[in-house]
Design brief:
281 residues; alpha/beta; 2 domains; 7-stranded mixed sheet; 7 strands; 11% strand; binds zinc ion
């Protein structure tokens, strides 16, 4: 099977945000590559198993990590590497000092890569990256893109149910930390996963990463409806769109990309994002 992509009018967005046009094009090209790979249907958990798992703070992925399609993941990753090697130095993804991205053939990819990525086995991933001539950050970004179609499908096949309470700050489907938040018109604080695009409700007053209470809210002149919620404890921030008076210019995940200038400004002030964005940086 193949996963469905979230689409938006790219032409309109590029016109509205010319400084982000290149990022939007890169993202679109990468999505096309990884979403074109067929994979075997993800597991559909029995309702009881799913509810029991979530109730004991296990994510959907924790329960069925070994059951995703490794061959399809490696194929998507190889397609992505081929694209990045051909478009070296065009930005959007990091590359080496000379601006090159190495060409990497599928047979060089270790069989354990997908599961090491999904379980965030940092030491193993650093080892794989060194063998492939990439930085660990580059490898993780690429794995994030290659795994997304399967994670999106896994989430859609295993919805948590309306009565399911999830009190943790990370994604109930794949375990990633959020890269964006929205305060809905009803005042709910909804977090957005950069990997599987899940949205889930979390208490507004606590940091989703470290649980610290007492976030500092910074307003942006250029983006009056976007807040930076900063955690003084773990020194990270989360971009937060406050609905109510204004609708965002585009849906998430595109909203994360068009507001990239906010991340660039925050980086200059040595603020760290709470997690990777949808483009893996
Ligand atoms: Zn997720
Ligand atoms: Zn924190």
């Amino acid at each position: 099977m193949k996963a469905k992509r979230i689409q938006t009018s790219l032409k309109k967005l590029k016109k509205q945000f010319p400084a982000r046009a290149h990022h939007l094009e890169m993202f679109e090209a990468i999505q096309k590559i990884v979403y074109s790979v067929s994979f075997s249907s993800p597991p559909v958990l029995d309702r009881k198993e799913l509810e029991q798992g979530l109730r004991s703070d296990r994510t959907v992925l924790d329960i069925c990590e070994q059951r995703l399609d490794n061959g399809a993941f490696l194929k998507a990753l190889t397609g992505l590497f081929r694209f990045l090697a051909a478009h070296s130095g065009e930005g959007g993804f990091e590359s080496d000092a000379a601006g090159r991205f190495p060409a990497i053939k599928e047979e060089r990819l270790p069989d354990t890569l997908m599961n090491n990525y999904l379980s965030a086995a940092e030491d193993a991933l650093a080892g794989h990256a060194a063998e492939l001539g990439l930085s660990a950050a580059e490898l993780v970004s690429c794995c994030q893109q290659a795994a997304r179609p399967q994670l999106v499908t896994l989430r859609e096949a295993n919805p948590p149910g309306d009565d399911m309470e999830w009190k943790l700050g990370h994604c109930p489907c794949c375990g990633a930390l959020p890269c964006f938040a929205e305060i809905t018109a009803e005042g709910l604080h909804c977090l957005r996963c950069p990997n599987c695009y899940a949205d889930y409700i979390f208490s507004r007053h606590y940091c989703p990463r470290c649980g610290h209470a007492g976030l500092i809210t910074l307003a942006m002149d250029a983006w009056p409806h976007l807040l930076l919620e900063k955690c003084p404890e773990c020194r990270t921030y989360l971009k937060t769109w406050s609905h109510g008076s204004a609708e965002p210019p585009c849906p998430y995940p595109y909203l994360d990309i068009v507001t990239g200038e906010v991340d660039e400004a925050a980086n200059l002030q040595e603020l760290r994002r709470l997690s990777l964005g949808v483009m893996g940086v």
